[in-house]
Amino acid sequence: MIQRIVNATINGIPVSVPYGTSILDAARAVQVKIPVLCKHPDLGATAACGLCIVRIAGSQKMPRACATPLENGMEIFTHDGELTEIRRSVIELILSNHPSECLSCGRNTNCELQTLAAEFGIRQDSIERYVRDLPQDASNGSIIIDFNKCIKCGRCVQVCQEVQDVWALSFLERGINTRMAPAGDILLSESPCIKCGQCAAHCPTGAIVENDETAAVWAALRDPEKHCTVQIAPSVRVALGEEFGYPPGTNLTKKIYAVMRRLGFKAVFDTNFSADLTIMEEANEFVERFAKGKGELPLITSCCPAWTDYMEKFHHDFVDNFSTAKSPQQMMGVMAKTYYSEKMGIDPAKHYQVSIMPCTAKKYELERDEEMFASGYQDVDITLTTRELARMIKQSGIAFEELADEEADSILGTYSGAGTIFGATGGVMEAAIRTAYYFVTNESLEGDAINVTPVRGLEGVKIADVDIKGTQVKVAVAHGMANVGKVLGEVRDARKAGKETPYHFIEVMACPGGCIGGGGQPYHTDIHTRMQRAAGLYNDDEKCAARCSHENPEIKQVYKEYLGHPNSEKAHKLLHTHYKAKKVYLK
Description:
By secondary structure, the protein is α/β, with parallel strands linked by helices. It contains 18 helices and 16 strands.
């Protein structure tokens, strides 16, 4: 099909874009920045804030650029004295309904409203303030809502309802008292919220932020009675650098190891190692189900806590399909407090394990059920997001950019390429296929065959047939909760019709892009950022000496010395969990 092209001018600059492109996006294509607060690249236009008004030659109207498509022959003017004054007035109106708490706000210096107020030179109130005194909602432990800071842009409601299909947030009341809140004006902990944090990631202000727990980690590091260790998730290494001026996707793995030791951690582990461990258990589980008929198909991945929470609430008829393998975070925690502590002579009661994750839901996962205490203690004591780690580094006075590279601690630090691609959508599936192939054939994939490219990329649902020595394995990968229903619906329809399942193995990640787009990653994430972060992980995979989890020498050592074999009695006790329907959401 031939794509229609629209030709116009913006501030006298010729622009040619595909038919249907908004004036806002067309302006960006010719390096013209039109101010906006309500529009996020991930979300459809709502024209809620009114900042992006522009002029069109021959028209008296001032349309909103985010919601107006460019048309052939248009002459657009984006900036002049009157437009600037109107935009300043809009910002002043928003500020009149917003608290002056910038210094104590979680988004201070990284707030889109604050930035615009500074750019427009707003230094004093010109409109009397009307700010309601509403209490914060910190009830679910992962994210905090400060209703007073909401600017009614609608981003959080859009992403929660349209991208995540959770519907935990909506608009309440009318007029100047309009506010964003859980439907029914209940607490967030009582709502369908799955703690994914996409609302916080898309909020332009400090109205929704992660529950900052850096103070507790600083206290633990200062406590001489605690032996503090840390683990770093796959996607953190290609996102943290954005907080320090690096381009998205820059792999700073070894620099992160170095800064962790400078912060005071006594050992630095890599969650990529426990991602390999997860694959050993999960791939074995798949082979048991697929090749030996021991369990229901499809097998569905369970390493994303926001997804497992969503499943237990809305898709609990798939409980028996869920892999019982714990997430890499939890596997690392229990191995650190058992295997590592035993080898190093550390009292596990004094072992304080911190995880650095791209995800706000990981905070919830720490105490999800009794299996998260398999070591006899809480396996992971506390989780920080990528953003929280960045704040700790900045507080510490360490010149992060100037640190020399260091290695992770041995035993729980070596990883394969399969472990690192866990951070991108499709990565868990690809890693599992690499090892499942070995478990079935006793041969490792080599050359280009090791790259399972059909499951890569940012398409919402990816489907592939994988050949294992003549046997076809049908797989599906979904990311962003709104994409999951389609895949599971196909499975349900097949069941009702008495037909064979359309898929044997399904990977689900709650956040768009997987962990690279997690709710705790640096702000201003969009599709281009996700692509760059994913590329950083795949580049790391290509450079790894071992690219399959079963080839990781430390994984072999752990099974030989401690666990026995995948899904052994000991492995099952330490590395597996269970799921159940959450009755409050039964339909």
